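Feature request, filed as a ticket because there's no other form

It would be nice if the structure record came with a short human-readable summary line next to the tokens. Right now we just get the raw output. Example of a typical job, pasted below so the devs can see what we mean:
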Amino acid sequence: MKNQLNLLLFLFLYSLTNAQSIDLNVSRIPDSLKTDAHSVIRYEKADLEILSQSKMILHFKTAITVMNKYGDNDAVIDIPFDDFNKLQKVSAKILTADGTLLEKVKKSDFEDISSYDGISLYSDDRSLYYEYDPVSYPYTIEYEYVSVTSNTAFLPSWYPIHKHHLSSQYSSYSLRYPKDININVKDFNHQGHRIQNQSSEGHLFYSISNLKAYDYEPLSPLINEIVPHTRFASNKFNLAGENGEASNWKEFGFWMNERLLKGRDLLPENAVSEVKALVKGIKDPVKKAEIVYDYMQGRTRYISVQIGIGGWKPMKASEVDRLKYGDCKALTNYTMALLKAVDVPSYYTVLYADDKRHIDRDLAMIQGNHAILMVPGAKDTIWLECTNQKAPFGHIGSFTDDRDVLIVTEEGGKIVRTKKYKDSDNTQFISGELSIQNNGNIKASLKIKSEGIQYDDHYGIAYLDPDDQKKYYKSFFDEINNVSLGSIEVENLSSEAKFIERIDFTAENYSVNSGNKMLVRLNIVNTSSSVPKRIRNRKLPLEIKYGYVDTDEVTINLPSNYIIEAMGNPQSLETKFGNYSIQIERINDNALLYKRSLHIKQGTYPASDYEAYRKFRKKIHQLDHLKIALTKNQQL
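Raw output as currently delivered:
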């Protein structure tokens, strides 16, 4: 009864503070907010109240003006709910450019859909979904909803804007909480913005007006690293019926181990016997781990299963063993159980996958979107990606490398860093032979060796069927017309994280014949195909996420009826972003050796450096397409 009265009081007070009408005429949008914007948030108000450790109310109200067709997705209404998150009120309306009501959207107009990610076996997450089909622009969608949830482990962050080409006229965030709960707050990118912080004891309040849109600029950091926002964590929380309390990562990791993982690593006796037999006589824990990992990969497949405690508790290891599938949590937990059966310690690890996002060291709370396994090694830490049945043992690629992650132990949680690749680790070496015929046709035989992140980009080729491999190499040689592929051999040296490709091919009319002359491009495959676009008055930093080193050494056999007219001088470029060089060495009258080296340096550079970087890549593009001139030998 007390909670119900609190809910009614919350809604009453909210309605009083938001009773004033807001003029949503498009003419009221400042011109500065229209620049680079496909949509404009006219206002957005998120009002939360934590009533107890296991109850929270959110009242969310917003209006978004869509300026053109590229902003339509910004006006899609997608309100999540599940068994622990109940919707109390949902309404929406469509307004014309002058703010006149065009259409009311009733709750029955919304679709009740599963929040299906396309690969999940089952998900208990649902959404109320509405998408407006506009007849003209601009238009405005105004909507609001109230949700009541027991999942206080997820406190919504305050993001006044969350993507490029979106501006905000007004955004506010209010969070009220009881005296027995502490809220940890962390601000990001607030500098240079007029953010109003009117917080007091038991009440956090942030607001901002007239936040301009960010134009997308290539090679810039992720949007969440640029825009102002604030994140919140509660020291007392509830996750789908499980209470927790943690003020730091050690305490949070201990809670995860006790409430989410403990007791879920039990295996059937036959599985334990089988895996013990596989490692019989082996004492090296790393070798044991490699055998167990291969065993797991060979008998499971990845399927997302978003059920259980907010999708955070893994399936039992015994269930994975029986069903032969699982999501990242389940397969990681299963592999951990298998290793435990052969006395190899390992630790469940939570992280953000794909984009290089870190688990925030300062906010002990539910974070991350993926799970992997950490195996301590005598020399190096071993990271196991348990969802990829083709991934080599211990290879960590761009999906999970170089970021802060949470490892869960019986003693608690620890934040550690995954492996970082140096520029010199990410190599590609191309060697081979190119023979040019008198008619301009070519015959080539190449060998490509890739390591590091470049290995990560290539090893999947080994698992393509022959037809798909041919399609891949047709695309790989897309700058060469009339390619006819010959033999293709690939070798995945997974234990060394090296990938070898051997490809033979021919192509008609590769060289340009004009009278007695022939022009030949020496760089046959590893050409810089594009130049970063020019951006005047760039605002965002330049970020090169991965450095690498490419080296090419190709012997070029010249056509018998031609002699070299002009060969060109060695070229080299040295910049803060990397180095580039080419050399053409005469082996004899009928053969050349083409050498190319490119080192791109990982790093983040100020916006003012972008034009210099663009010129560097433009010059590489020009030199990569350099041609030598041959003249027909009139004496033959």
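Something like this underneath would help us a lot:
The chain is about 15% helix and 40% strand.
Confidence is low (pLDDT under 50) at residues 8-20, 116-122.
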